[in-house]
Please model this.
Amino acid sequence: MSDLPKDFNSLLLNVQKTAMEIAAIHAPDVDENARFPIETIAALKSSKALSAPIPKELGGLGCTLKQLAQLCSTISAACGSSGMVLAMHYIKLACIVRHAHEDVFFKHYLQEIVEHQYLLASITSEVGTYGDTRSSICALERKEGRFILNKQATTGSYCAHADAILVTCRRDSEALSSEQILVLVKPADTRLTQTTSWDTMGMRGTCSPGFNLEAEGCEEQVLPDSFAEIAAQTMVPYSHILWSALWWGIANGAVHKAATFVRTQARKTPGTMPPSATRLAEANVQLQSVKNNWQTLASEFDEISALSDAREKLQDLGWALKMNNLKISTSDQAPQIVHKALQILGLQGYKNDSKYSLSREYRDALSGSLMISNDRIAGKSAALLMIYKDA
Ligand SMILES: Cc1cc2nc3c(=O)[nH]c(=O)nc-3n(C[C@H](O)[C@H](O)[C@H](O)COP(=O)(O)OP(=O)(O)OC[C@H]3O[C@@H](n4cnc5c(N)ncnc54)[C@H](O)[C@@H]3O)c2cc1C
Model:
């Protein structure tokens, strides 16, 4: 793209164009062949969307979380897998921006991301820790300024296509399972051996099999803050808000198809409202309430982040509960909204070869409640509610 965006609004226009003209066109093939959405990610790179969260003084656009959420929802309305890749990249990039951008190594690395539009992936999952991201078995082995890190990951999205992976592990071999750090590993110093397949119902284009990771590097690649701080202040809020926005985007895409169908029906019978129009109105109610939920919390996060005591506020139990509630409610509601859109479309939505098909949207939306299990999150909320009293 010739005109590089100078601000969020021009970036959003570029991303909307990418969604309509590239992501939507390739989404069926990405889904059918469970392949990485190379075309969409290449287009996002060429419009410099991958460096949107990086501060302006380092060459990025300094986008807020609410703005990033808008970008993810725009892409996911056309291709859920592409939206998820963008969201996961932003989550990892935010960890660096918010916890290491004053560090000499990472400051320089952020400038490299702006220049080369590197794509960042994430490995928090591990064989033996189940879905608990806040515990690790593997540990960093340090020697003379360098490290070795070996990890058996159950799931690693688009790792084979990433320019770097951020990996959780114990601080050292003496540390407790919860004493974690986050380490940047680069492809040139990393061997990935695929251990499982990724032939899933949905989110097929995220290409997320299991891997044995064997990496080495310099100690400066370790983020300075503990993962406990990074998770509470950045990774959890970014994940739950960006994921919510993208699950909403998938549902929005489905309702858009249903609305187009109902309007076409209405034009065929002037003066008579199609019976499915009332269902469309119902789907619209739920769509608006989910959108309000993620947008409100994204704005709240951006407001808190500007405060001098942001770190304390983001460690607050009440904030953690809000994030858990958001994740559970949006991942529950997105497939319900797609289901409502399917009832409106009937067989036209059920057929795989119809232009109104909701097969991909339905299957993609189902991943939300599993992506960090809602039961696991509800269990954590239940424990928090035993001690937290809302003022
Ligand atoms: C599309 C997608 C992309 C992903 N990408 C990545 C990635 O890039 N990197 C990465 O590291 N990981 C990734 N993951 C994995 C993710 O981080 C989690 O590890 C994974 O979703 C957890 O899977 P699980 O259901 O096997 O584990 P668990 O959370 O252990 O759940 C297993 C079962 O136990 C139940 N359960 C768990 N805890 C409780 C509880 N407290 N109370 C009651 N029941 C409970 C659950 O309901 C579920 O039935 C991805 C997952 C998805 C779906």
About this structure: The CA atoms of residues 33 and 204 lie 8 Å apart. Residues 122-221 form a domain with the Butyryl-CoA Dehydrogenase, subunit A; domain 2 fold (CATH 2.40.110.10). The radius of gyration is 21 Å. DSSP finds twelve helices and seven strands in the chain.
